[in-house]
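Per your request, structure below.
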């Protein structure tokens, strides 16, 4: 008899886990309050930049690099299964060097153990302007990370949802999960709009909303929203062909002809708004990097709510003391990057009933009193 699983949340994390579980033979239902990818998964820029800020490999960097290494296979598999091109771009990212401290840090990064695999080097002067002529002439050097890639995150969620459905996953939308149904210390299902759906396993993957859902079951999961505002301008003809990541945000060109500008980091709860202050912050950083952006049309603006835990790390794995309950949230600014590894590890955890070693630093135990 196939293991029955309810996945709460139809974003990139929920859909990718559902797909992997279905591949493993599970009978899976995804419960989504809106439509797949409607929240943080669609609001992101899709950057795949796993090296972080530390030369010393820590569990988060190891997870991020492992997920980055999975992406070429994931992209090809989703295209083969669904026909969706997720626009996996591999041009790399430029990190402007604007101070002596930046230069020292860039030089250190060139000596990192992963520098060769990621094509890390410093570009200066004419060499820099040759690949990105629109850069401000105030920026005379930049660290180039060839291995930083990006994808169209909206297409990625669509592909994962379609691939999951193709494997028999039932994706139910427009439903609000009111509570996780427990009997003693065991999961029995979920309560949805007055209906109880009986399942053997529940995966809580509702992003920034996970804390509230857990609380209704008497569980303490301190994960909540961090708002990120973004906007897009026309990139026709192209101003940039590489992603640019500076201290005030990032610029990401899309094959669609847009240039994405992001993102603010705001602890304002679930206040859904694009604000003048947010616009000013984003545009100040963008114009200092590429002055000609000021003459491009703004095509759209939006915001999303990243799921954030107090230590800024993901929360992944089985809930201690409750048989059948699993959590996959808290990815903060790295949900797109971490999706393949999260899906692989969480499905292994659920199917085998054992916690893979890479998940152990991110277990929800650290928040359970």
């Amino acid at each position: 008899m196939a293991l029955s699983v309810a996945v709460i949340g139809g974003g990139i994390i929920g859909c990718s886990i559902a797909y992997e579980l279905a591949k493993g033979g599970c009978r899976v239902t995804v419960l989504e309050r809106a439509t797949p990818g409607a929240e943080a998964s669609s609001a992101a820029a899709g950057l795949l930049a796993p090296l972080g800020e530390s030369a010393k490999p820590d569990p988060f960097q190891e997870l991020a690099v492992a997920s980055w290494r999975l992406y070429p296979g994931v992209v090809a598999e989703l295209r083969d299964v669904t026909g969706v091109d997720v626009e996996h771009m591999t041009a790399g990212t430029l990190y402007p060097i604007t101070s002596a401290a930046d230069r020292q840090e860039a030089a250190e990064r060139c000596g990192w153990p992963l520098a060769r695999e990621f094509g890390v080097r410093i570009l200066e002067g004419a060499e820099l302007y040759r690949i990105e002529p629109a850069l401000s002439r105030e920026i005379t050097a930049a660290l180039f990370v060839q291995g930083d890639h990006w994808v169209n995150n909206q297409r990625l969620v669509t592909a994962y949802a379609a691939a999951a459905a193709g494997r028999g996953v039932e994706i139910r939308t427009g439903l609000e999960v009111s509570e996780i149904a427990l009997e003693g210390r065991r999961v029995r299902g979920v309560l949805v709009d007055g209906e109880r759906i009986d399942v053997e396993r529940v995966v809580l993957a509702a992003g920034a909303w996970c804390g509230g859902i857990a609380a209704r079951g008497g569980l303490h999961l301190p994960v909540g929203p961090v708002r990120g505002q973004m906007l897009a301008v026309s990139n026709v003809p192209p101003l940039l062909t590489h992603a640019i990541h500076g201290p005030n945000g990032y610029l990401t060109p899309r094959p669609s002809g847009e240039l994405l500008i992001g993102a603010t980091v705001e602890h304002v709860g679930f206040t859904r708004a694009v604000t003048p202050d947010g616009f000013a912050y984003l545009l100040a950083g963008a114009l200092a990097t590429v002055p000609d952006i000021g003459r491009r049309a703004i095509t759209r603006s939006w915001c999303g709510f990243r799921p954030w835990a107090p230590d800024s790390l993901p929360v992944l794995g089985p809930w201690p003391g409750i048989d059948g309950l699993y959590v996959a949230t808290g990815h903060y600014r790295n949900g797109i990057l971490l999706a393949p590894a999260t899906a692989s590890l969480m499905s292994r955890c659920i199917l085998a009933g054992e916690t893979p070693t890479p998940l152990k630093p991110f277990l929800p135990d650290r928040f359970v009193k």
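The CA atoms of residues 55 and 108 lie 8 Å apart.

Regards,
D.
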